[in-house]
Amino acid sequence: MYIINHLIKTPLHLQLFEQVKKDILENYIVGDKLPSIRKVASLYNLSRTTVETAYSQLVVEGYIESYPKKGFIVEDINASTFNRKRNHDNQKENKKIWLYDFDPVGLGKNSFPIKIWKRLFNKYIDENIDFGAYPSGQGEEGLRIEIAKYISKSRGVNCHSHQIIIGCGFTNSMEVLAKLLSPKYDTLSIENPGYNMATHSFKSHNYNIKKVPIDKHGIKVDVLEKQTSRLVYVTPSHQYPTGVTMPVSNRYKLLDWAEKNDGIIIEDDCDSELSYVNRPIPSLQGLDKFGKVVYIGTFSKSLSASLRIGYMVLPEHLLDLYHNHYTKVHSTVPLMMQITLEKFISEGHWERHLRKIRTINRKKHNLMKSLLVEKLGDTMRIEAQGAGLSILINPNVDINKDKLKDLAKKEKIKIYFSKNICGGDWDAICMGFAVFKEEEMEAAVETFSRIWHKSKNNIEKSGSGSELKRL
Ligand SMILES: Cc1ncc(COP(=O)(O)O)c(C=O)c1O
Question: DSSP string spanning 203-218?
Fold first, then answer.
């Protein structure tokens, strides 16, 4: 923002020249484009001649150059004078320091259907949209209808579109819930280990958090029964992080607990779309006859985490409460995102995209698994596989974790431990596969295996190996 004072003696073009020059030196990098003469003239209420004079002085002094069809471009006068240029370069370097990043929640950069998305966006952005109005805080009805159809068909969720609340991802849904359910509920029970964002979102609304251990059937309902909490967060289709699937017997036990205790179960179904071995079992919400389950879903795992679109399904009896609390809350997802997503689903692209993304990620999953077996052999065991975006492993031999971390840093490999995301005693290394191109995965796992073998302590332990408990 430049300040042009029409009341002082300094000519307007000189005032503009000095300020644009300063801006170039402090904030621009070589190759950046300056705003057009017309734009600057209109923005600062100046004549075009004034702006032209200021720009041509900048050209004469070598700060910028005028290129046909491109406009005014910042020149390379002397790199050391561009403060921000150095900063920009550093930022870029920081981002790029990883040779291999085993991101356990990232999708491949090229897996987003960019062409279709752009086409739909352009097709549906027209004068029928009221850009002057605030969109519905609950989310656009058209998108809610499409989501309701999709989750009832694919996940057996029982719902109507009026029960769906659209928001910018999981944390947003959890925060809305935390506000909605307080003060009737003041304690949240959560699986241990469990997703720490669930804990954070309720903790920030002053809830007490109680941890409930899990076993191979998911959350231990008998422990939950002994806690005073009437609110529980679970990931039944693919427990986060261990990958355990909650069998139907335990689901009924949990629903029974909720019914007896006037409780609410928050079902986070985030990984259900990416199941490579078995068909995912239907949602817990679909078994619920008494409106005890709040279902939360996201588009982050199969479409894009950067779109920031998720949703939750409230039971009917919470809707009045929601509407009383939230009539004045604005949408957290931009209108055009919602409309584009609605059309993406209704025109059949979502189903096709899901089939494609499952096939691609199944291949990557299988490749990662076979490479891990080939390169680490029986020095490791697989803890969780067959779904989601990562395979979890643990050592069967005595691995020095600190050494592994140090070597990873030295070799520029980014590795992830589930304990850092979930807390608790249980830990595993999360080997994200979706972010890699198939052709680069071998080199990535090979590099990882080198540091893995170098991190082994001499005395090999048999069986359970690491300090970690098996489920
Ligand atoms: C357990 C769990 N739930 C939900 C999500 C989705 O989060 P969001 O919708 O904010 O992208 C994630 C993302 O990694 C997750 O790990």
Answer: HTTT-EEEEEEEETTE
The CATH number of the domain covering residues in 352-454:
3.90.1150.10
Q: How far is the CA of 6 from the centre of ligand 1 (A)?
A: 53
Residue among 38, 35, 5 at smallest CA distance from 20? 35
Please tell me the CATH code under which domain 12-95 is placed. 1.10.10.10
Question: Can you give the residue ranges of every domain in the chain?
Answer: 12-95, 114-348, 352-454
Confidence check: pLDDT of 310 > 50: yes
Q: Quick check: CB of 416 below 6 Å from ligand 1? A: no
Tokens for 374?
Answer: 């080939």
User: pTM of this prediction?
Assistant: 0.79
> pLDDT tens for residues 140-160?
999 999 999 999 999 999 999
CA–CA separation, 284 and 265 (whole Å): 9
170 lines ligand 1 (CB under 6 A): yes
310 lines ligand 1 (CB under 6 A): yes
Ligand 1 atom 13, closest CA: 105
Residue 44 near ligand 1, beta carbon < 6 Å: no
pLDDT, one tens digit per residue, over 178-193 is 999 998 999 999 999 9
Instruction: Please name the CATH architecture into which domain 114-348 falls.
Output: 3-Layer(aba) Sandwich (3.40)
Rounded to whole angstroms, how far apart are CA atoms 215 and 399? 25
Residue 190 CA to ligand 1 centre (angstroms): 15
Whether 427 lines ligand 1, by a CB cut-off of 6 Å, is no
